[in-house]
Amino acid sequence: MARFIRDKFPQLPLFLLSQVGNEFEKNNMELFRSVLTKPIKQHVLNREILGVLQGNDKNLPEQNTNQQILTNDFSIKHPLNILIAEDNLINQLVIMHILNGMGYKPEMVANGQEAVVSASQKQYDVILMDMQMPEMDGLEATRVIRNSPGTQPVIIALTANNMQGDKEKCLEAGMNDYISKPIELGELISKLRKWSLPTTGQVISLAC
User: DSSP labels for 131-171?
Assistant: First the structure.
């Protein structure tokens, strides 16, 4: 199957999920980006997928035109410390990939409660907030953060819900702005540029 796929789609990265030992890996490594031994550990799979998203694979096609926008220059011009609060693994990888490409090194939490704890322990500049998270959703997390003392971050809602009234709910909860998912690179760049200030140091992204 791997040889068939490699012939038809030579640019497609392949992972082998196997209980076979190193001997198979040595003889057939040219077919696969890597061989993952079962049972697969989540952090290993995360690392391999993120490697593909970041382009660390000789079998990947050349970067598309959107990738040209992802340069470290943006983070130099708009220095921000970022926290991402998102419970969906794929969304985590995508957002992390985009922000890394812009030169940022954001932090990640998986729910609203963790976002509140992180915000209480460290000052962030911006919060990108998705609207549905376990433990505590983004709206409630925003209310808690807004009622906390100290310097307040910019909070930008990230939501897959395009329903009328969602934007108003986000703003009423204390969020500053709104981005619909799937995230478009140009819109994210525009929002970060809009809310960045010369004195800002950190950005927080929350999933609602």
Answer: S--SSS-HHHHHHHHHTSSSPPPEEEEEES---TTHHHHHH
Q: What does the DSSP 8-state code read for residue 183?
A: P
Residues with Cβ within 8 Å of 160's Cβ and at least 6 positions away in sequence, in order, are 130, 131, 132, 180, 181, 182
Does pTM surpass 0.85?
A: no
Q: Report pLDDT digits (tens) over 93-148.
A: 888 888 988 899 999 999 999 999 999 999 999 999 998 899 999 999 999 999 99
CATH class of residue range 66-205: alpha beta
Report, as an integer, the average pLDDT of 81-86.
Answer: 96
Burial of 183 (0-12, 13-18, 19+ CB in 10 A): middle
For the chain, the domains span: 2-53, 66-205
Contact 57, 76 (CB under 8 A): no
Measure CA 143 to chain center. Answer: 23
CB 101 within 8 A of CB 192: no
Token digits of residue 110:
């998986």
- The pLDDT value recorded for residue 207 is 62
For residue 155, what are its two tokens?
A: 């909070």
Closest by CA to 49, choosing from 33, 28, 71, is 33
